[in-house]
Structure formats: C-alpha cells, structure tokens
Specification:
This protein has six helices and twelve strands. The chain has helices at residues 24-35, 67-74, 94-109, 131-143, 145-159, 198-211; strands at 2-3, 15-19, 39-44, 52-53, 57-61, 79-82, 113-119, 164-170, 172-174, 182-185, 195-197, 220-223.
Length: 226
C-alpha cells in the first residue's frame, strides 16, 4: 500500500460520492480529488483494485445495480461523480439501472450536483459530428450495440432529471498526454482530436465541480489535433 500526498487544498473541499472509481479513469480521478483535499467515498465490488490508502478515502463494498449500496455512498456526500462503464461481466443495462438508483438516492438525500462521464459517440443537440465521428459511432453500434444503447438511455435519464448535472463526453481515453491543449465544446468542434488523457479528464471534471462550471451542459473534451 502507498499513501497519497496532498499537494494543494481547494477553497471548498467537498465530500464526493464516486461510482466507477476502480476503473482506469476512475482511479485517476479519485487520486486527483484526494490530492486536492476532497473527501472521497467510493463504491467498489472489489476493494482490492485500490493499491493506495488515504485518510480521506472511504471504500464501501457493493454493486452499483443495488439501490442500498448506491444510497449508502450518496448519503452524507455533497456531489456525485460517475465514471461507471461496462465490464465483461456487467449487465447490458448497468448504466440505466445505476441511473435510476442514483437519481432516486440523490432526491432522497437532497444532493443536487451530478457529473457523469460517457463517450463522445453520444450525439446531442448542438453537435456537428464530422464523417469520422459518425463512422466511429456506426462501428460501435455494430460491435457493441448494447453498450451504446445503455449509455444513450443513461444520458437521457440525466437530461430529464432535476439535478444540477454535467455530462462530460470523451473520445478514446489514454494514460498519456499529447501535450496539446484541451478542446472543449460540442462534438465536431474544429481541431478536436480523437484522444484525451485520463488525467485531463480528472482535472476537467474536478474543476467543473469546484468552480460550478458546465451546469446542465454536456461538453465534449479532447486534446487538440495540432
């Protein structure tokens, strides 16, 4: 086990309920949030996926498809962050089921702020996808239609909710950065590339939380092509 070092403290540290925190993007976000002074509560089916400890990290064992587990994590939290995605063993509608649970729990616990991460293959009003964006989405529909359908249904749940939501959409996620600026806007924004580092995703989502940005908006983010 390794301990994390806090590098800076935000003006308004929060208690965050994080779902999907054991995934690749999720672990980066959790570590970054702890480094910035936030308290993080994570729901994990397998807590052994975390190789670090921190006094402000609480891992609760449970499944995101079970309401009681979701509600336990949301309770006493000030904001919810979901990076929940599909795994080989997850139900085909895991995001939709989780969405029902988390929105019910947030309503009961009076938690308003919600950020979720999804793919840029989910097109929404204002987007101007180019031929490559459309080709990639078409291939996803052929290869894994259930995953794309589930993500689409989940996004609609969030759009129809009364939470202060932000939907962050990303293309291919990487563990490395191309050292290009982050392009933020609708899908199809000029110079928007096809990759984004998981660290930039974490930084963007946490900044949106800390500064109250992008409420009821669905920005796509990617590293610039050039």
């Amino acid at each position: 086990m390794t301990n994390l070092t806090i590098f800076c403290i935000p003006h308004f540290a929060m208690i965050l309920a994080v779902f999907g925190g054991t995934g690749k993007a999720g672990q980066v976000l959790v570590k970054t949030a702890l480094e910035k002074g936030h308290t993080v509560r994570v729901l994990a089916r397998n807590r052994n996926k975390f190789t670090y400890t921190h006094p402000n990290l609480k891992i609760l064992t449970g499944d995101a498809t079970h309401y009681e587990a979701v509600n336990t994590v949301v309770t006493s939290s000030e904001a919810v962050v979901s990076l929940l995605g599909h795994t080989p063993n997850s139900p085909a509608n895991i995001q939709e089921v989780f969405g029902e649970h988390v929105l019910k729990s947030m309503s009961e616990q009076n938690v308003k702020r919600l950020l979720i991460l999804t793919g840029s293959g989910i097109f929404l009003p204002g987007d101007n996808p180019n031929w490559l964006d459309r080709a990639i989405t078409f291939m996803l529909k052929l290869i894994d239609p259930n995953r794309l359908q589930d993500a689409s249904e989940h996004v609609q749940q969030i759009l129809n909710s009364d939470t202060d939501w932000t939907i962050v959409r990303t293309p291919i996620q990487t563990n490395w950065s191309r050292n290009q600026k982050l392009v933020v806007g609708p899908v199809g924004t000029p110079n928007m590339g096809l990759t984004v580092s998981r660290q930039k995703i974490a930084d963007f989502m946490l900044q949106a939380l800390e500064q109250g940005q992008y409420i009821r908006q669905y920005p796509a983010i990617a590293e610039a092509l050039i």
